[in-house]
Amino acid sequence: MIATLILNLYFWPLFTIITLTVMAFSPPLLLLNRFLFRIPLDRFVRTGVRIYGRIIIAALFPLVRVKVDDRRGKISFPVIYAANHLSAIDPYLFGVLSGDNGFVTTWPFKIPLYSRFMKICAYINADRGFDHVQQEALRLLDAGCSLIIWPEGHRSRNGVTGRFKNGAFLIAGKAQVAVVPVCIIGSGKVMPPEARLLRPGTIEIILLEPVFPRGRADEPESVYRLKNQVRGKIIRALRETEPALHRTNTATEEK
């Protein structure tokens, strides 16, 4: 209880300071990029968002520790990162990634302070329907930007990985890019859904071996197979640390 109190007393003021500082320095940095670096605007701001995520994760230390287990091996970019979803802090965790990447999501577009940056970054608002998502996803992938998608579409309330939707895997097939399963462990305990306070703990991010689409992109069997292979890899990685919770969640493991 004392550790929880200390964590929230120091983190939330620090979070506010970091966020306001980033906002304050954004205009001069954008001008500097326009006249000096000349990096495409969306890519430049995506880099800034990734750095912001890393800073936020670092601010949680030492009461919240974030570990990364990279099992991807050598892969060609761009890719689609498909992750299980446990907590509102999950997007910040992707600050640990290197390389250009963009989110397919919904709720940050509803936050006034964040929504402006979401649009500048060319992140994809999933609330606008799959046709829009697919069009923008293919455009970003073609530009070399990897995508981050939560195929469940929502946070798990009990820690068990739910059903995956088809969208990420249809896009992977059409773009012919690999899907990297991402297993997130512990974020739902650090900040459970609907919770307002953080709790001390450890979060582990496991970047698993990529899965490559096979067969025709619009063939239901190909989409189904790719989706279940990715979900199965995540479930098995989760079972390594929480065997009881995921013992019965095996129906769609990779075969």
What order do the helices and strands come in, and which of them pair?
Layout: H1 2-37, H2 41-60, E1 64-70, E2 80-83, H3 90-93, E3 101-105, H4 112-120, E4 124-125, H5 130-142, E5 146-149, H6 167-175, E6 179-185, H7 187-190, E7 201-207, H8 220-241, H9 243-246
Parallel strand pairs: 1-7, 2-5, 2-6, 3-4, 3-5
Antiparallel strand pairs: 6-7
Helix pairs in contact: 1-2, 5-6, 6-8
Describe the 3D structure.
By secondary structure, this protein is an alpha/beta fold. The protein has one domain: Glycerol-3-phosphate (1)-acyltransferase (3-Layer(aba) Sandwich). It is built from nine helices and seven strands; from the N terminus they run ααββαβαβαβαβαβαα. A seven-stranded mixed sheet has the order 1-7-6-2-5-3-4, sandwiched between helices. Helix 4 links the parallel strand 3 and strand 4. Helix 6 crosses helix 8. The radius of gyration is 18 Å and the shape is globular. The C terminus is likely disordered.
The major β-sheet equals: 7 strands, mixed
Query: What's the CATH C level?
Result: Alpha Beta
Bin the strand percentage: 5-15%
Q: Could you give the count of β-strands?
A: 7
CATH architecture: 3-Layer(aba) Sandwich
Estimate the global geometry from the Cα principal axes: globular
Structural class: alpha/beta
Low-confidence stretches: 251-255
Strand order of the largest sheet: 1-7-6-2-5-3-4
CATH overall fold name: Glycerol-3-phosphate (1)-acyltransferase
